[in-house]
Amino acid sequence: MYQATKHVLSVCEHLCALLPESERTKPQVLLLAGGVVEYRNDTDRELALRQESNFHYLTGCDIASSYVCIAYQPGTSLDQHPSVELFIPEQSLADMMWSVPPPSIAAAQETHDVTSVENLNALLAAIEKHVKAFPTALFHVLPRSSPLFPTLSEEYLAPILAHEGGAVTDFYLLPALHRARLIKDEHEISLIRKACDISSRAHETVMRVLGAAVKGGIVPAAGAGVDRPLLPSEWLIQKEAEAEAIFVASTRREGAVHQAYLPIVAASTRASTLHYCCNGGNDKEFAWGPIGAHDHQNNNSLSSGRQLKPQVLLIDAGCEWTCYASDITRTMPVGNGGKFTPEAKAIYELVLEMQKACMDILKPGLHWDAAHLLSHRVLVRGFQRLGIFKSPNSPNSGSWASEEAILASGQSTAFYPHGLGHSLGMDVHDVPSASKPAVNPSINNNAVELGHSSFYQYLRLRVKLEPGMVVTVEPGIYFSPHLLASIRESALIDHEVLKRYESVGGVRIEDVVHITADGMENLTKVKSDVEWIEGVCSGAL
Ligand code: GLY
Ligand code: MN
Ligand code: MN
């Protein structure tokens, strides 16, 4: 069973630590609304509910339109055992006829780690009971003006506000939840591991379908796709949408209900668009004919006599498992018999080297800024080796600069503009207020070497690592015309060499890792070494 009461205790402890001293010993009451089913316009059909993350964290409850009321007070019987009262909607005849009704009270009691379960019509009386029993209580709610959280009906706040001195605050609860959620317990790790396992198999499935086609192993029978639809075993991947479909189908057939975010499926130079998924993303054919740099309009029609151009296919996709996310990126070769071109291979190996260097140093106490800076350092070193940044060995070395000087210039940001990774949990960019605090002594007191300020614009994790954190490690190298515009005149770069690599588009490799007591555990099963990726994508493995 989902260990909700442990989470409640952790949140209450964090909450009290955030309160002014004078408020800490008072009773604290937490009131949260769960997610509500939404309907697609004029279809009379509900959209799939994805429970609000904080509500799920405190209750493990995925029943729509539920509420929870939690009471806690340090130094009393509620100290180690806060009361957690869950309120779920009654089963209605209409529900039973049209849809899957909420469980009975008895069934919900069996499956939820809470103090009690009642029907929603008992909630108002329960709030009035808390107001009477704890006249000095502080009532905590999630931010009320934010569209990110379910609306807490005014009806339920009225009895609190009607009480003399009744206080409702939305200042402390969300930061307390984020701090608690930053550190995952074993059960949460097992749910993230399961999401990663399913997503790993989905990534591998896409690669194996590509490889089978290279070997001529996917040959639709006569009439398939004309007289009858193609069967899944006849599906080829020749378009971004086809790769996305196979990824999503693979996760769904293993029971995943939601993707943790819209998949990003970008072929060829479109891989340089970081979040290429919406508004025309994931929707182009692979490159068969001439294709321009950063071409989002590639519309060449397929014809049997033409060869796929050598190109990369970047897939950044991960499903959820019972509200816990995965977030995995693999970049694979398409065309060229399922092998990378020499340029794509060089960039791929460098991104892998950036990832490995960072993973090697991950352990509790390490500041994430230091790992991020290291990833830029490895990029700069690798680009000097390839001759993109001039080095003393470059044929055109007139104005070469040292690794330190290139790092200080910030020019690596033009190739790697995003952060090394982020906290991951119930949400993909999990617990932002705890992972990148607005007031952050860990960076303001010069505790870590920072490097150029441009490295940090999109870094979403800026604290020291602790055991139980789950983070992504996702370096990338991109050749985006928009970003390269800033370095076109740079004297540090050999522009002739750079030109040779631009058609690679982009490479990102992203794994999910769990910070352990003395290092890290990679939760991502799908492999990423060149030999394996090329072996599978060429159909040899
Ligand atoms: N999938 C979005 C990211 O990697 O952060
Ligand atoms: Mn990510
Ligand atoms: Mn990702």
Automatic annotation (TrEMBL):
Its cofactor is Mn(2+). The keyword Metal-binding applies. It comes from the Eukaryota. GO terms for molecular function: manganese ion binding; metalloaminopeptidase activity. Gene3D superfamilies: Creatinase/methionine aminopeptidase superfamily (3.90.230.10), Creatinase/prolidase N-terminal domain (3.40.350.10). InterPro entries: Aminopep_P_N (IPR007865), Creatin/AminoP/Spt16_N (IPR029149), Creatinase/aminopeptidase-like (IPR036005), Pept_M24 (IPR000994), Peptidase_M24B_aminopep-P_CS (IPR001131), X-Pro_dipept-like (IPR052433). SMART domains: AMP_N. Keywords: Hydrolase, Manganese, Metal-binding. Residues 2-149 form the Aminopeptidase P N-terminal domain. One of its GO terms (biological process) is proteolysis. It holds the Pfam family Peptidase_M24. Belongs to the peptidase M24B family. This is Xaa-Pro dipeptidase.
